[in-house]
């Protein structure tokens, strides 16, 4: 064995030693490294070193034993929900009830694992994703999102075998590495929007993910070793439930997300979106004043919209125009009224 080959193997062993991984997985990789030591004169040595190196990188980066401590204070949760969401009183109460059950079952992990899995169902822009983020914030858990829109292959979730060139783990394991916690809130976003070709097989993986008897030993093809997902909280979203398999729906608690009327949108725009847009642009709130008569154009620029995506785009666009005027030295305070609104929002909207 030449010095360079020896150093490569020593580096891999050191990297493995620094990771806090299950003992039997450590032993399996150590055996593979011993086998690699016998291949140093083979042309396959360096490619195999690269593959093992990539595998160890993944293994040691996963949160096998890392978790966050839950904060299940209902008053704190109410503050988070009120800060991030207008209205939705019934939905907020449902989540507080869910958290109350968690608090009463803190010492009973099996009971917690069997809690219903919420599925927010509603049109685009009605707050499904942001509500899931708020739940993670309220409980002081890490958050990760797995997008299902356009997904057509169950291997996207479960990963590919290391026998394949360029193989890597699936989105489930990637979400755990992103969260760096084994008990994050994982959002399964738009599970109804998978392709028709992959629907049946993807729904099969979803059943396993959402079943507490199976997800405590979820096996990604790339890792080829079980990972315990039972401490994660899964939340799903869907535009509708028509394309979701019955076996998956049996494991979900559908919660309808209501559409917003114009009055609610005006309140959301004034209290939530405009202050957020100004803060992100580093503009003091008193710099921009929007006349009450203008808000009807802002909330319904192109006709009815169930959600608030268009409203967000409109207000953020308005704030960007204000930012440009400030930088150009053309003012320090701006009152948006019926006479000048066309200067601040897209011409198609007025």
Automatic annotation (TrEMBL):
Q: Which GO terms describe its biological process?
A: protein quality control for misfolded or incompletely synthesized proteins
Q: Name one Pfam family in it.
A: Lon_lid
Q: Where is the AAA+ ATPase domain?
A: 114-258
Q: Which domain of life is it from?
A: Bacteria
- Gene Ontology MF annotations: ATP binding; ATP hydrolysis activity; ATP-dependent peptidase activity; serine-type endopeptidase activity
Tell me what this protein is called.
Answer: AAA+ ATPase domain-containing protein
